[in-house]
């Protein structure tokens, strides 16, 4: 997998996921619409069939936002896991109960507007009764649908964020309006410059948007060593190490003739890994 592909996919909600998020809401709406079209006694007396269908479609489409919300929560919990995390299941259940309360309250209000008279809705006790009745009739179904969507979202998120196979890693770079694929063995060393990396090869240098922190573990299997906070070196291209007496620093000499920085704190570890 290429570096650019990894950057674009890692933990990111992709446009095609909206299609998956819409499947359950549209199936539920199709069942509701079929019931209304086949059985007239289920139709609302206060409005037309078209308005009733539109209202129910809007209600079910709200469910499409649930996977996106959960996706963001999964990503946030992963980023903050060092601070300690309560079990994900408990947090997901809490979110589900809150969303159920809001969504089913909205359903109760929609049904009152469609079926109840204005005199009946004028009494607060009737509104509370309607919300309670809606909860009793639909809470189990709603929570089951929510659990299914939460599980599907989690599995999709976990699969997408799974570590890539380091042996299949390669770089994708652009040059002269062409996309080139660079294998790790062709790279002499990588230099960090802000949010970009300069990939030094025997055939020239290429710039990609990435970070050494993310690439270092992926390239370790290919013989790369972190020589400096701004440098990652391919040991297959290392000629030796020299010290700079004028600056009391060290440099990694490469067969290409280039030199990469070597931090004093990394010197012992670097030499040990070189053997």
Can you give a write-up of this model?
This protein has 2 domains: 3-160, no CATH class; 167-274, OB fold (Dihydrolipoamide Acetyltransferase, E2P) (Beta Barrel). The chain is α+β, with helices and mostly antiparallel strands and 275 residues long. The strands form 3 sheets. It has a 5-stranded antiparallel sheet with strand order 5-4-3-7-6. The chain is 52% helix and 20% strand. It contains 9 helices and 10 strands. Strand 9 (249-254) and strand 10 form a beta hairpin.
Number of self-contained structural domains: 2
The percent range for helix content is: 40-55%
Q: In total, how many beta strands?
A: 10
Per DSSP, the total helix count is: 9
Q: Report the structural category.
A: alpha+beta
Largest sheet: 5 strands, antiparallel
Give the overall form: elongated
Strand content: 15-25%
Low-confidence segments, given as residue ranges, are 4-10, 81-85
Write a brief structural summary.
The protein has 275 residues and is α+β, with helices and mostly antiparallel strands. Helices cover 52% and strands 20% of the residues. It folds into two domains: 3-160, no CATH class; 167-274, OB fold (Dihydrolipoamide Acetyltransferase, E2P) (Beta Barrel), CATH 2.40.50.1020.
Layout of SSEs?
Elements: H1 3-9, H2 17-38, H3 49-61, H4 65-79, H5 88-115, H6 118-121, H7 124-160, E1 171-175, E2 178-182, E3 187-193, E4 196-201, E5 204-209, H8 212-219, E6 224-228, E7 231-234, E8 238-244, E9 249-254, E10 259-262, H9 267-274
Antiparallel strand pairs: 1-2, 3-4, 3-7, 4-5, 6-7, 8-9, 9-10
Helix pairs in contact: 2-3, 3-5, 4-7, 5-7
